[in-house]
Amino acid sequence: MRTSSQITTSLVIALGSTLVTAQAASAQPPTGQVLGIEADGDGCAVTLVTGIDQLLNGRVDSDTCTQLSAGSEIQFTPALTQVEVLPSPTVATVTELVAGDRACYVNLVDANDKTTTQFANFDLCEQDLVGAQVRLTYETGNIIAFSCEGDIECGRSDRAILISQAEVISRPTPTAQPTVGSLPDGNYRYWSGSSNNAVVSDQELLANGGVTFLFSKRGNNVTGLFGYVDGEAICVQGQVNDNAVTGISVQNLRGANVISSGETFSNFGPSDRLQVRRGRQINRETVRYNSTLLNLAGMNRINAGSVLPPGRC
């Protein structure tokens, strides 16, 4: 849903012969959403937007004026001689919430797959509703007039029909991520963070931190690089069972110290995802751990990136 200042740049046409032509081309009268209402004597001036983002300006008599509110969807005849207010959906799925200059705009899909945009109180935009099926409650209120073009100091207002409450009926069931052990052979990368983007960039990783595991899988054999974003890393090699990898690990880093040389597991870094023991110093740059446990449960699969995983540790 675009803001009123954006919509005002759309094509504005007068109601009349243009709509006669449009109506003749369709068996059904056109529909639109009321954006603004301004009383002027024995009626009111109405601004509405059609489904093709055309702004229409017209006048209605006082009786019709009392039926209309900003946000109402209407079906109308040319010159607004007949206007029918269409019912707002009471149960629908929320697809988007947009905080605009006049209201919170709620994009909905109802049971008949009809898409509409409804006006709502601003606090609705702060709720976790996207993707949820909701039961809607409406109320009449006042919002900044459409003619104000977003200027909150203009002092004019429009009567509006607003969603006051959205009760969640159901939410989509999250799709279970396959276990690492069930993945087909290939190269993969997992991250302890999450993103709304299909492709996670290096900049986003650096901004959010966490740990990653870049690996190749061949049958149950896994070889990869576990590391902290912009921090220490270690090569892990072993067998995977569900989301756990057991095997050995090797760190190649000048000055690296053995974390655990005995039978007690110690965390590699602050995260408890990778635990090592039975470590020994091979040389000044290499530490090998003959027992390693890596837990990938709860980590998210992201794009593999442009770097290949190691062939062996």
Plain-language structure description:
There is one protein chain. The protein has 313 residues and is mostly beta strands. It has 3 domains: 4-85, OB fold (Dihydrolipoamide Acetyltransferase, E2P); 91-170, OB fold (Dihydrolipoamide Acetyltransferase, E2P); 180-302, no CATH class. It is 7% helix and 47% strand. It has 4 helices and 20 strands. The protein has helices at 4-7, 17-24, 62-65, 202-208, and strands at 12-14, 31-39, 43-50, 55-61, 73-76, 83-85, 91-99, 104-110, 115-120, 133-144, 157-170, 186-191, 211-218, 221-228, 233-241, 244-252, 266-267, 274-283, 286-295, 300-302. The strands form 3 sheets. The chain has a 9-stranded antiparallel β-sheet with strand order 17-18-19-16-15-14-13-12-20, with no helix packed on it. A 6-stranded mixed β-sheet has the order 1-4-3-2-5-6. It is elongated and about 95 Å long. The chain starts with a helix and ends in an 11-residue tail after the last strand.
Q: What is the percentage of strand-forming residues?
A: over 45%
Tell me the quaternary state.
single chain
Radius of gyration: 30 Å
The first-to-last residue Cα distance is 53 Å
Instruction: Please state the average pLDDT score.
Output: 88
Helix content: under 10%
Uncertain residue ranges: 1-26
How many distinct beta strands?
20
Structural class: mainly beta
The string of secondary-structure elements, in order, is: HEHEEEHEEEEEEEEHEEEEEEEE
Number of helices: 4
Number of domains: 3
Largest sheet: 9 strands, antiparallel
How do the strands of the widest beta sheet line up side by side? 17-18-19-16-15-14-13-12-20
Shape: elongated
